[in-house]
Write a structure and sequence with these properties.
mainly alpha
Length: about 130
């Protein structure tokens, strides 16, 4: 009786393990856009996903961190993105790409959506 119960427990464990392993293979990989949004959410200490139209400078100001958006926080965000997209053959974004009205008005990346677009255009996996 005990041997039968042990055998059933072992089979149940094998089934659960294999089912979990199989479900991992079925997961859809995250898009570049979703990966960028997650990096921004973590960088700005946000509790929810930021909208594409959200200004990066405003998201940073809401984070409660004490250092300036440009160049300091922009450099941190650039490093975080490079870490996330470490397999890219080219630089996916530079901190000088970020728009800051008083100090870098030539920057093209203002919003989360702009950033996702820039990364998607520059990301070249090896």
């Amino acid at each position: 009786m005990i041997v039968g119960a042990a055998a059933i427990a072992v089979l149940a464990l094998i089934f659960i393990t294999q089912k979990h392993r199989f479900s991992v293979y079925l997961r859809k990989p995250m898009s570049v856009h979703d990966r960028v949004v997650n990096v921004v959410r973590d960088w700005a200490s946000m509790s929810s996903r930021p909208e594409d139209k959200e200004l990066l400078e405003v998201a940073w100001a809401s984070s409660g961190r004490s250092f300036a958006f440009y160049p300091d926080a922009a450099q941190v965000l650039t490093r975080n993105l490079q870490s996330e997209f470490h397999d890219s053959k080219t630089a996916i974004v530079r901190y000088t790409d970020f728009y800051a009205p008083d100090v870098n008005a030539n920057g093209k990346v203002k919003t989360v959506g702009d950033l996702a677009t820039a990364v998607r255009q520059n990301y070249e996996p090896q």
